[in-house]
Give the backbone structure.
Amino acid sequence: MLLLLLGIAVLVVGYGAWTWVTDLGMGRNQPWQPPNPEAVHSALLRLQQSDETLLTLSVTYHDLHGFHGGLILTVHGDGRVSQEAVRVKVGPLKERVAKEDLRRLVDLLIELSAWQQLIPDATPIPDESRASVRISLEGHLSVIWERYNDLAAGQRIIRIRELLKQIAWQSAP
């Protein structure tokens, strides 16, 4: 019985890790690229001035945990939206995100310096959940994270999550 429970736990944790790796772009027939926050910063500033590279934008909020469930919500620069939710209420997705809403998202990312990791890297403590935001633009990537329990205090990732929900969902659950 203990081995069965251990096997189930490994599967659940493994699934959470797999979805995180997939979210980083690995496992999707895309070459892996190291994060380059400063290049993302420069690309966001260019995007704020001109829509020329809007189609290359992708912003993903990710808090899916193998034990607790969570949400992966992605908005693309062409207006497409995708989400994966486990044990959380979500709203129905819009067909497309409006261009003015994408501009609001870009402005918020710049306001919050969302390409820049502020919390020093640390080994996760047991049962710790993290939320992350992944920005991909012009072939550049940045990933930031915060401890899930600290989202309200940090007021960065939670603001991005709430705006993503607002622009991606037809209505709140």
